[in-house]
Amino acid sequence: DYYDTLKKWDESGLVEVWHHGYYHSYFNENGEVWAEGDTSKYGEYKLSYEKQLDSFSKTYNLLKEKSGIEVKSLGAPFNATDDTTVEMLNENYPDVKVVMTALDEINLPQYTVEPKFLHLTNRINVESATGVFSDFEQFKANFASKLEDDYILIQMHGGLWWQINSSRPEEQFTRFTQM
User: Fold this and answer.
1) Phi-psi region of 85 (alpha: psi -120 to 50; beta: other; left: phi over 0)
2) What pLDDT shows up at residue 49?
3) Is the pLDDT confidence value at 165 over 70?
4) Which of 44, 48, 57, 120: disulfide with 100, CB 3.0–4.6 Å?
5) Which of 71, 62, 67 minimizes the C-alpha distance to 97?
6) Is the pLDDT of residue 125 over 80?
7) CA distance 118 to 73
8) How far is CA 155 from CA 22, 79, 120, 123, in A?
9) What are 65-79's pLDDT values in tens digits?
10) Nearest residue to 76 (alpha-carbon basis) of 24, 130, 128, 152
């Protein structure tokens, strides 16, 4: 049912299914799952070329096999990519046209490799923490400041509203409705 639903959403033209990583975990500099006390902490799109390709391919192939969807966009876990990500996507997935990483221009990765995709950066941060909405008045001010821009990207983690805020899901849904 899950993959059938994704396929229906995708076919509707109203929803675009994005790639958001296979592991969505932190890793140490050796590419092993991060553990308390490790001195380094990386998302999967800050690892070696082989590990990034493996991660991207697993999700890409799973979606294609189960739902027929060929993703065209990557929202990197932890908003983290690097030159290796650019090389991996350019060489293996030229149909990926959009990548969302940093919250704003100043925090974008300083790529030395020319990406063949668009970076979406004009984002309004609606959460004070993952799955927790920020102040509504601040959201309105941020939104108003971007009305003249070519696009506005609003990212949120709706699937976590009840998990993180199980004692107050109605409040979270009310905030969503306001926004």
Assistant:
1) alpha
2) 96
3) no
4) 120
5) 71
6) no
7) 9
8) 19, 11, 11, 7
9) 999 999 999 988 888
10) 24
Q: d(Cα 155, Cα 158) in Å, to the nearest integer?
A: 9
Exposure string (b/e) for 42-68, b if CB count within 10 Å is 16 or more?
Answer: bbbbbbeeebbbbbbeebbeebeeebe
Q: Are 81 and 44 in contact (CB under 8 A)?
A: no
Length of the chain: 179
Of 132, 124, 127, the closest CA to residue 153 belongs to 124
Q: Specify the pLDDT at position 12.
A: 95
Strand 118-119 to 98-100 pairing? parallel
CA distance 21 to 17: 12
